[in-house]
Specification:
Four copies of one chain form a homotetramer.
Chain A: H1 2-8, E1 24-28, E2 31-34, E3 39-42, H2 45-48, H3 57-69, H4 80-97, E4 101-107, H5 109-124, E5 129-132, H6 141-145, E6 164-166, H7 186-193, E7 203-204, E8 209-210, E9 214-217, H8 233-243, E10 247-251, E11 275-278, E12 289-295, H9 296-299, H10 317-332, H11 335-356, E13 361-367, E14 370-375, H12 385-395, E15 400-402, E16 405-410, E17 413-414, E18 420-423, H13 431-448
Parallel strand pairs in A: 3-16, 5-6, 5-9, 9-10, 10-11
Antiparallel strand pairs in A: 1-2, 2-3, 4-12, 7-8, 11-12, 13-14, 14-18, 15-16, 17-18
Helix pairs in contact in A: 3-10, 4-10, 7-8, 11-13, 12-13
Chain lengths: 453, 453, 453, 453
């Protein structure tokens, strides 16, 4: 099979980051199984899409059911689930933010990001955006332009709408060497300075107009390493943006749907974004359905009329049916409580790990069930990418002896220095499974860094 | 339901092209049903995605089955269906074109187009493309730049990589007033002239280098109105492009998978494209899975290495499972024969219609099961968009009295003047159903243009 | 001297098109002299800048005088000559076109073109332009984007505002193979077709808006080979542009100031451009002064306020003093008569040459004192660049035996195929000098193509 | 005259920054005279172009002489002065920096900047640049893209090659609140951090390649307010750029030719730029001649061949003759000594002023004869633009009673907050004239801020 793959498949996606790639056959709950039946406890849950657990029965059933009724429809016609899903999200946001808005669907996170760019360009007549260093918004050309890594642009020619990237408040490694206790959000002040005079390049004081249309944010950086910003940061930032008539676009593709303890991660920070982009967990990973919500003023039928954007699979019936069921689950089940509690338990366990392995773990942090563990050298600060890679590779081997059974641990590596384990367990993970993962971490530490345990 | 929609849904997709939108509840074979159970015979088959029929049992079952085994997987791991699907397409192209290549998957046609743009930019170091007037390649910012309609760019600011659009060989309305019988492919010669001297703006004769990287083509234009190019056109075009080292990217999103009587529409024209983009019918519309195939030289692991592009839902397990089953069907069933024969029958029937309604139909044409019927004024040439719209609107009312039953006819309008019915019936449509559609066309002609029948 | 040059000077300007370069010491009237005192009759007159003759006493004196009074001034202050010059041009255009306008100065033709681009962008909010194949507007990045030759862009990365280049009505080599007598301006119709439907890529019919802001034209192409468009062409083109709200920018840098028999070349064609760009002959080549004139509505102090553009040498006192004197000369002397008469005489002489050397000259044409002679192969049509180059090279050798004296002939080669001598003699050339040039042409023909005379 | 101006002249240059504009008739040495003969002592010397004094006899004579010999020449031919001037600059740079290079000429500073952009793009294949906040490089579209003020871009659509602007080390108002004594060049470290990881957006660590091609610097900011960077800054910056293979382009248009006490301002800072751009004072403001010098590797005839760039007035004979004479003057006269000494005297005098008027002057600084005086509120720090404007306006009135005569003081206002007098006196200003200017400053302070003197 690997030989066939090697001959016919492009290597351009992420399969070959690891060589040879891992073949997976089945999954359930928090586990994936290889063809030999070995179980791997998954902490990333498929790039953060399967928050509600692999093989979630209720959602899978919704999908089965929709196949048997209306498995597809040209998006020029209407089906009930689309309407109900849009309404569910609209009402939820109205209750949370006190503002009305509208929902537009698409397929794939990048395309939703592209739709948000169209919305911003349409509203402002401008094409330049702010975005965060460490931010990730997708891999279409437009989304790559606002994603920080130059690596994603390097071989693809000129990006005329490359964002201006602003340091994210990554306090463990504050770019200005400040301490969170005493910094008084120095970082936001540094951003605000950009508008002091026209010579700072962003602001025409005579016209009272900014050159940049919107600021794309992830409330908690995903690929950037699950970095949690300090309290007050976003409030202060939004005030500056409002004053300069710069929109805030909140990319919740990774963190939305309770990953960070609230329906939207941004809710943790007391600001109302102008546009929200979402995807991934919207269908628990069962369908590429994605979407945007925008404040009404930006997306009225007059301003953003029929035909403003479109895609064949945009409001597809299978995806909307699953998403609608998922929205119902969130109305019935208190996921805020679940994610806060399980997240707190998991955070406590990794903080304990940090205390016990100070020569391996430099930082732990988390919000809801988005947790980070930064692998550092013995000084507890210098990033140790090599060790991080080793732990990842050993974890995925599937040969950890866990209570008499061979198991593996599936991890995801992120962060600016690629030395952060970003932990995004399924919401139905049990405390026992959390404990199990901690056990496996310890085994991996011992195996990979025997001299630092 | 429509009221809720009106409040919470963005109008920006195509639902509100018709107001109020049509609510659909169920579909099967070639029919969709509204909530009252009225049947509508569908000729477009969901923007050309459901070529293999609504509710195709074999494909739906493949989807059901995959949900119960491995409904998703992070695309950094591998699953069998992905490999087999890539291999099936790779082998098929090798057999057809005699060149080896590789397949990369994504989700949504636009994202596959964006991937192809990355591939082209990576190979050539250039960012400018040729594309056809009347061509459609998607609605992300990058895809909009190579899609002809300015309407899709107008409110979205500057497009620094806007394509140079070349007239498509639309012989019924030849831009140069030539006749197909005697033109000797004047249109290709006009394109070739662009490289005569450096003053034509495209060619640096001293360096022997073109300013443009690739030519994006649809072998048969989709949205442009199912325009079939004259024999020899693409062969001659490809020779010019090869001479100038300009790649040809063949967008088969609408026409691929036998719509035009061959697996790829381009096969009808004896050229081997450098890159093929596909989607839609790949899963019979059940999943947003899309992809590109490229000649090996362009997409070697060295040139287009891991991480070159990526998306969460790219090679998703549900989509690849359905697509793999579909590929198996194409190996077992002679769709070439089916589409050629049924297409021929349908074409004959609409040609007969044209003979009988010369004051309504100006042109009919078709290749495989991609057929066109151009609605014109009494002179048989001047486009009659109003009549076309009226026929569309009456057809979708669902009140045609067909052999004692109320029925509707779902049509799709395309073409430069929005006066073309683009007919893309399901491959399992019966001759009786074709006859039925002809009957309904006649009813609609009589209802909408009583003085011209 | 040449050795020093070879070591310290960049080769990037046009000096090294010919190697070794020619050293010039002095010039006067229509002649330049090398260090040995050999005279060369100049037909191009320094890239068309010195129309009023080398060493024009009156203009040189104006320059001498200004040096002794106010040789410079920061352009934030005002000097009399600037005001009078602006007024002279403004009044002239009012009398010619019946519309009021304003004048803005800069230095170098390209910078004036850049200013015109700013004016167009400011007015329309759009960044895309039409321009002609064969058109030349300068070599800054912005001007290169609307200049047809890809050679001027090739090594300089992405040009996001590359113009869409339209074939110029070059009737001797009509791109569509039409004959001027019977074509009925087919070429303009071909341009007009671009706005037929949104699928032609330039026009949003729903919004009634074009994607392109302006059309940059040279009324007679300069570098393109002194191609004179057919009567009616520009009138018809302007009507189409007006209908689509696309501005016409008339680049008179090469043809302005009577080169084509009228003050502005465009006056020959009965249209009023929205913007005129000028330079070169404005100071008879004594100063880089350039400028734009625009219809009042485009350039009101409100729309194009102080600080909209600027350059240190923009309205420099030396340049404006010379230009003002030149404007006075044009008021006192009937240059229209002079250029029409001398041009007619010269054209008659080269037409006679063509009759006598049909195997060398394929086409001759001219308007005012802008004349062309196209060197072709024996068939009278196939461009013969080699012969053209040979004639040029022999002419500049300075060894023609003319009535007992060694002389040279300075020619300029232009045209799409680099086979056109573009003749732009000084306005004070005598008929005897014209005859002399004809004699030298004959000698050169005999020397370079003995078998075709 | 003003009425005529108001009717025919565009207001778009800087004349109307002050309304009504000042009419100037004559100038000499450091003085300009209005039509009534009132003298104004000029401290800016025509946007820094006339460093060698108004009406400099030697240079004016060189200009007169050239008019009478060869006042112009098509730049495809060669004249002696061009060669000698290129050689003079080339040799000077070789002696100063120990590297060989080549010189290319153009006209107007912006066009030289555009040429440098072409050179950078040609070398690197990249289009994005770093530049300084507060930096000014011209007003063509390309130059505006790397000039910090958004005001210069706002109404002109998309700038796809907008620079990334980096804070200049403006220590009096350190963006990070550091003190020069203890900062250890924190600012350079902040810049260096941009290359720490790929997530900082500028660096692809895997490929070892930066997204940005060059850093455009003014060694001392001109328009930005004559800000002198701290010792060591540029050395440290250059090291970082070299390490990342990012070129340094040194814009000496304002500061070159001894303004800052050395031939090139950058010489004060011990770094060798890769490209130098120059203009303005090159001809003492008598001609728009400008140019670039580049390290040989960047500008070999192979890499930057004939035709790479061009402009009619590029190496014009009048400009090169004056510039050559000016180069001779700099070889004969010790301008380094002159500018250092007079600059020191002037700086001492304004520092004394600052001591005596601490409630008006917040900062004084200078290098060579580029001096700054920052007008602040009584706290000595808050910028006081209003007072600065008032002093400027009163100075230019021409009614100061100076030793029994009515006089005026011409000032130039710059700086981020438009509260800095940027003083650029003529090199032949006398100490008495310096004293005179100080006297006038005091009168103006008393007149404009009686309560703060």
């Amino acid at each position: 099979m690997l030989e066939i793959e090697r001959k016919h498949a492009s290597f351009s996606d992420t399969v070959h980051y690891r060589d040879p790639p891992k073949l997976v056959s089945r999954h359930e709950g928090s586990y994936v199984y290889d063809k030999d039946g070995t179980a791997y406890l998954g902490l990333p849950m498929r790039y953060w899409a399967a928050s509600f657990g692999y093989g979630n029965e209720r959602l899978n059933n919704a999908l089965h059911h929709q196949i048997d009724t209306l498995p597809q429809l040209a998006c020029q016609y209407l089906h009930v689930e689309k309407v109900q899903l849009a309404a569910a999200i609209g009402r939820l946001n109205e209750s949370k933010f006190g503002v009305t808005g509208r929902v537009h669907f698409n397929v794939g996170g990048s395309q939703a990001v592209e739709d948000s760019l169209k919305l911003v360009r349409n509203e402002t007549g401008k094409t330049l955006m702010f975005a965060f260093m460490g931010g990730y918004h997708g891999r279409t050309l437009g989304a790559s332009a606002i994603t920080s890594s130059y690596r994603y642009r390097r071989r693809y020619g000129h990006f005329g709408d490359r964002a201006h990237f602003v340091p994210f408040p990554y306090c463990f490694r504050c770019p200005w060497g400040k301490k969170r206790e005493s910094c008084e959000l120095y970082c936001v002040d540094q951003f605000a300075k950009n508008f002091d005079t026209e010579y700072n390049s962003f602001w025409d004081a005579k016209a009272g107009e900014a050159e940049f249309a919107a600021f794309y944010v992830e409330a908690i950086q995903g690929t950037g390493g699950y970095v949690v910003p300090p309290p007050g940061y976003f409030e202060k930032l939004k005030a500056i943006l409002d004053e300069r008539k710069i929109l805030m676009v909140d990319d919740e593709i990774q963190m939305g749907f309770y990953r960070a303890g609230k329906f939207w991660a941004i809710e943790n920070f007391n600001v109302t974004p102008d546009i929200i982009v979402f995807g991934k967990a919207l269908t628990n990973g069962l369908n590429g359905l994605s979407g945007i919500w925008a404040r009404d003023e930006l997306i009225t039928p007059e301003k953003f009329p029929p035909g403003s954007t479109h895609s064949t699979f945009s409001s597809n019936t299978l995806g909307t049916a699953v998403a609608l069921e998922l929205m119902r689950m969130t109305e019935e089940i208190d996921y805020e409580k679940i994610t806060r509690e399980k997240g707190a338990y998991f955070l406590e366990r990794i903080r304990d790990l940090q205390r016990r392995y100070p020569k391996i773990i430099g930082d732990t942090d988390g919000m809801g069930m988005a947790l980070r563990m930064e692998i550092c050298q013995a000084d507890g600060f210098t990033p140790d990418k090599d060790l991080c890679d080793a732990i990842f590779a050993e974890g995925i081997k599937g040969d950890l002896d866990v209570r008499g059974k061979k198991m593996g641990l599936v991890l995801d590596v992120g962060g600016y220095y690629k030395n952060v384990f970003t932990l995004a367990p399924a919401f139905d993970i049990t405390n026992e499974e959390i404990d199990l993962s901690i056990e496996m971490f310890e085994m991996l530490f011992k195996r990979c860094a025997p001299d630092r345990v």
